[in-house]
Amino acid sequence: MGFFEFGIKDVIDIVLVAFMLFYLYRLMRESRSLNVFIGIIVFVLIWLFVSQVLEMRLLGNIMDKLVSVGVIGLIVLFQEEIRKFLYNLGARRKVQNVLSFLHHEKKKSADKESIMPLVMACMNLSRNKVGALIVVQRSAPLDDIVETGEQIDARISQRLIENIFFKNSPLHDGAMVIADKRIKAAGCILPVSHNLDIPKELGLRHRAAMGISQESDALAIVVSEETGRISVAITGTFQLRLSAEQLESILTQEMNL
After folding, report:
1. Cα distance between residue 25 and residue 19, in whole Å
2. Burial class for 160, CB neighbours closer than 10 Å (0-12, 13-18, 19+)
3. Which distant-in-sequence residues (6+ apart) come within 8 Å of 218 by Cβ?
4. What is the model's pLDDT at position 91?
5. What is the pLDDT of residue 87?
6. Which residues pair with 237 in a beta bridge?
7. What is the pLDDT of residues 168-215, one digit of tens each?
8. pLDDT: is 95 or 117 the higher one?
9. How far apart are CA 85 and CA 31, in angstroms?
10. 222, burial (CB in 10 Å: exposed 0-12, middle 13-18, buried 19+)
11. What is the mean pLDDT of residues 228-248?
12. Are the CB atoms for 141 and 175 separated by under 8 Å?
């Protein structure tokens, strides 16, 4: 009789739990906390086995107390992962894209005036093998990143971008932040990704670009100082060795200046 009580809601319940565990597994793997995550799963299984199957009251009560206290410890231990999970959960990028569909053509022509100076500056920097890191704000504000650098608040200009990243410029080592069709700041400090999947030949600029793309929906452009190659980091993934046409296409599709 109990077998027939297994209904569609139970299937949905199992699928949702499996999906949540898979998402947590992927999140822990990216943050190098996979072993901790596996240890927590093993502890929970032991706790359930001791309290529910073996019905050991004393050991079960001790483990119950550890679980209740451990929740607070997990919040402290995984505060960055929890923040990232909640941010991804609350992201409304796709919804915003649907709502702005009717205005796409109007915005496209206006964005060209902001995109082309950026593309041309990146190509000149690439040709001269001048390193650069440019972050383009999308829906999530980057005020905390802007505050770490020198605020500029100037229109997007090819010459200004090239001058900021000139090798003798005091701001060339940091990141430039672009938002609302303006260069907001330069020399900014970005969070560095510790993802082990990043190729070893990619330097600190690429890791910083990956870091900001993982913690926000920002788009990060990197010009390599060693090779002159142009890369773009979006939502934790890299697009490498881009041409001018490819860079322009990505910015047109993904960027909301």
Report:
1. 10
2. middle
3. 135, 136, 137, 138, 140, 142, 212
4. 53
5. 62
6. 234
7. 888 888 999 999 889 999 999 998 887 767 777 788 999 999 999 988
8. 117
9. 12
10. buried
11. 91
12. no
State the Cα–Cα distance between residues 139 and 253, nearest whole angstrom: 14
Closest listed residue to residue 131, CA positions, set 161, 158, 159, 154: 161
Q: Which residues contact 121 (CB under 8 A, 6 or more apart)?
A: 158, 161, 162
pLDDT for residue 77: 66
From the list 146, 126, 151, 148, the residue with the least C-alpha distance to 135 is 146
> Do residues 83 and 214 touch, judged by C-beta distance below 8 A?
no
For residue 198, report the phi and psi dihedrals to the nearest 5 degrees: -70, 130
Amino acid at site 223 = V
DSSP string covering 127-164? HTT--EEEEE--SS--HHHHTTSEEEEEE--HHHHHHH
What are the backbone angles phi and psi of residue 81, rounded to the nearest 5°? -65, -40
Judged by DSSP in three states, 232 sits in strand
pTM of the model: 0.64
Distance CA 21, CA 41 (A): 10
Per-residue pLDDT of 28-86, as tens digits, reads: 665 556 666 677 778 778 877 777 777 777 777 777 777 777 677 667 766 666 666 66
- Long-range contacts of 34-39, Cβ-Cβ distance < 8 Å, separation of 24 or more: 36/77
Closest CA to 74 of 32, 25, 34, 37: 37
Q: Which pair of tokens denotes residue 174?
A: 């940091």
Instruction: Report DSSP state, residue 89.
Output: H
The DSSP bridge pattern shows strands 175-179 and 132-136 to be parallel
